[in-house]
Amino acid sequence: MESEKKKRPARAYYPEEVRDIYNALTQGDNVEQAPFETNKDVFMLAACMGYRRDMRKPLPSGKKADIRLEVFSENDKDILKGIVLASGGDVELLENFGYLDIIEEYAYAGIYEVKVRLMDTAGLALWNFVESM
After folding, report:
1. Average pLDDT over residues 103-132
2. Which end of the chain has less neighbouring CB within 10 Å, N or C?
3. What is the mean pLDDT of the chain?
4. pTM attached to this predicted model
5. DSSP 3-state of 93
6. What pLDDT, on a 0 to 100 scale, did the predictor assign at position 131?
């Protein structure tokens, strides 16, 4: 009898310790200070930044925040899957949301780069974002 692969929840996780970064970039009335609409948008940027910098960081044990996978568009999911494949991940990881483990590590490492570029640099986060890309 062939063993059944474990299916992980359809959620992308990030450590609770970085929630303040996500909140700072998504909450508030000033779009120049909080230029992103959703945590998913910040997560996507962080994952791409982590991949771009070739930085992965395992998520610590403990409390985690999550983003339901249903809020990611098909294009978002394709980008995330492409990152996994481009980084040498096995195509089998694309089944049962297995690719999210790798993406979460890229996003966790990348969120600190996002913070440095957008929040720790003089100026407003939106314009720091535009200038850094």
Report:
1. 92
2. N
3. 89
4. 0.89
5. helix
6. 87
For residue 122, give both structure tokens.
């003089």
Q: Which residues contact 64 (CB under 8 A, 6 or more apart)?
A: 13, 14, 15, 16
Give yes or no for a contact between 98 and 41, defined as CB atoms under 8 angstroms apart.
Answer: no
What is the 3-state secondary structure of 22-91? HHHHHCCCCCCCCCCCCHHHHHHHHHHHHHHCCCCCCCCCCCEEEEEHHHCCHHHHHHHHHHHHHCCCCH
> d(Cα 49, Cα 38) in Å, to the nearest integer?
17
How many other CB atoms are found less than 10 A from the CB of residue 77? 16
CA–CA gap between residue 112 and residue 63 (Å, rounded): 18
pLDDT for res 96: 64
CA distance 12 to 10: 7
The pair phi, psi for residue 45, each rounded to 5°, is -60, -45
Tokens for 73, please give them.
Answer: 């568009």
Q: At 2, which amino acid appears?
A: E
Q: Could you tell me if 133 and 44 are in contact, meaning their C-beta atoms sit under 8 angstroms apart?
A: no
